[in-house]
Design goal:
heterotrimer, A mainly alpha (506), B alpha+beta (89), C mainly alpha (330), A: 506 residues, mainly alpha, Ribonucleotide Reductase, subunit A, two-stranded antiparallel sheet, C: 330 residues, globular
Amino acid sequence: MDMKVAKKKLGLKEKYRTMTRDLGWEPSYHSKDELFPYVGYEGIKIHDWDKWEDPFRLTMDAYWKYQAEKERKFYAIIDAHAQNNGHLNLTDARYLSALKIFLQAISPGEYAAHRGFARVGREFPGVGPQVACQMQAIDEIRHAQTQVHAMSNYNRYYNGFHAFADQRDRIWYTSVARSFFDDSMSAGPFEFMIAIGFSFEYVLTNLLFVPFMSGAAYNGDMATVTFGFSAQSDEARHMTLGLEVIKFILEQDPDNLPIVQNWIDKWFWRGFRVLGLVSTMMDYMLPKRVMSWREAWEIYGVENGGALFKDLARYGITPPKGWDDAGKAIDHMSHQFMLGLYQWSFGTAFHAWIPSDDDMRWLSAKYPDTFDTYYRPRWEHIKKMAAAGTPFKNYGLAKLCQTCQLPCVFTEPDDPTLTCHRETDYKEHKYHFCSDGCQHVFENEPEKYIQAWLPMPQLFQDPVNGDLGEWMKWVSLLDGKDNGDYADSEDKKNFEVWRGLATTNQ
Amino acid sequence: MSTVFIALQANEETRPIIEAIEIDNPAAVVNRQPAMVKIDAEGSLVIRKATIEEQLGRSFDLQELHINLITLTGHVEEDDDSLTLSWNS
Amino acid sequence: MQIDLRTVAIEPQRQAFDHLVRRFGNKPASRYQEGSYDIQAAENLHYRPTWDPDHQLYDASLTRIVMADWYALKDPRQFYYSTYTLTRARQQENAEANFSFVESRGLADMLPEALRATTLAVLLPLRHAAWGANQNNTFVCGYGYGVVFTQPCMYHAMDNLGIAQYLSRLGLLLGDTEALDAAKRDWMDSPAWQPLRRYVEDCMACRDPFELFVAQNLALDGLLYPLIYERIVDQHLSVQGGSAVAMLTQFMSDWFDETRKWIDAVIKVAAAESDANRALLEGWTRHWSARAASALLPVAELALGAQADEAMAEQLAAFKARAAKAGLTL
């Protein structure tokens, strides 16, 4: 009988196509516009969704199998870490400031990405991109959860973690990351993909995760190493999706190029500002440092980003507009951020500190052109003030950039002695910016950015009404516990006592 | 030529994979860092199922790579027998 | 220096994150609680969506259902990513074993020809229906409110895709790519499948996430799964010598048993919240389940012929009883 004839053996690509692409159909009871209403308004032209090349070809059975293996490994280590007081393996508890910022600002971004990818996973009218986006949607909730789970044990012993959910929505500095993700989610589906899938995942996450997790490994934090590398293994798929998206859009129609280039310019700069905090983590917050921010930028920014944009040049894509300004900021930003964090540390749910002499020697060596000239003198001054019993605190309100929401602490790209400040008048209001990049972003879409929730004006509204104590209550910040200089903190005292218990017989 | 790379977690499971990559890409540079091995190669890098299987002594599905993968760059070309990373320029 | 950290007994400073202490009291929280409650941004959302400027980025008013606290819609399975994935990984191992059992013993080739034809005719177009379910659950996850409600919808969507893929494998095993092509033609053009395809497309046009949840997960799947996998595959086809088919669809039967408990729990809590919710849910369920029943009838006829009416009546009665348990009078 002819059924006995050997069946065609399907290769990976054909098999995946059969298992996914062929599932979709052209609707006839409703128009495509009705079923996919958001896909047109951004002006991107797609002629043939079938031209989409699938990034990794995982069917659900393989996805469940491999992801379960990762999950088993991850939770085994997290459990052991909690059971064995793994937190006492840290080089030093000041390291935890980096994790506190991560939990308050980045983990909520993972959740936002989860929802954003669910939306585009529904809104694109092509099965290939839908499935790829849906897989990223489910991965992103994984990342949010593994991060909360990994830090849950730190929360039991250390301050600053306990109110991350409240602080995500209310404390001033988390609005940097929140506004970034809100910005991407409020954009159309294609811009969302360029924002998160391409600019953030492809161009920038290596800078976030790889040095950060190596830093965790250097500093004895196995819980974070584990969630980091475990998450990053999903990122490899996400990055491949990000690259595929951009190729696909650009190959579909030449009219897409200027739109995409504009988004790349915008999102590179937005991402660069958000990830700027990583520079401070790497240069200041790791007691034992892996590499400087400058060195990480060389590998993952210059070398890798350079290769990427050289490759995309065949479509007419040029490196993002802010690329050169970013390069000029590299030797300054971590110092500028840390000085800011120190002077406003009364208002942060993590600790800052004055770098030790040893730290400063390292910073001089890593930043020979800038540290001794511009930043060491400031730290030495701050150190004197602290020694005299009058530590430097800036109770003045930081002027926040309307776009990135960071305090305007950065200097002119070509003059490190001059603070960079830009203004735009729009509908009888004045808006402030930290840089040309942020000003451009605003001016391209002013109606969007005038909506930004800015945490400083909130200080003068109910229920805070300008009262610092009320504000702390409103943002769930415990004064004297969560904030201030690490040198005087409970975290420091406790960590040293507990380490003492572990290493002596008292 | 631009550099592509792949980074894998440093553990027993990835040891034979890394050996296989070294065999198939003699010019690749292997950087061993805490908890991570990063392999850089000029232009392109190929990972072959058959070579991994020789090192491992068992059959290996290339998708098993996902378990210990940390990151990679370049365009990914994947079929049943190999996975290739490359830049076009 | 090797130190034995386990020997140090230190008192924790606190038991759980603040938002969980407020909800569940001052005690260690479960991983489900940590991974699910209040992790969606709730205040000070920055920008209105450019695709829908009349709403917020997360907006409970996208549905007509009103909840004082959307986190009341707890998933009784307490699935977070890890527990979900481990559960499905075990099930896929089982499914894999079933597929290779059928393959290695050539059971597919031993199926009587008529039975094989019926199986392909009834099951294969359903992979498109499962893809529709995937898009609908992805939608609910994307636009619904509150993590405990939206999170399981993402898992459900991926399950829908998994089911579409298992049906495709079944098609390749019992037929070939031509069988899948024929099934797609049926889905697009055959009169027996048009009411169902119209139902799925109507769902995709529905942008109230809770109504869509009812239409897809309660009404359609609540009738489709017991009818197709219990009544037709496990009973009707098995007695004719098609138990190999039942092995290949075991995943779907087990999955339906598991997931209906979650769907019922969601409906029950939402209906108990207010009379207005209950009235809405009853209206939606009545409307969509009546449509689902008439859409599934011609499909059931492909396998059951004249017995289809009676089988559908049984299913509707069971469905009514199920809805009553969740607090809905149909």
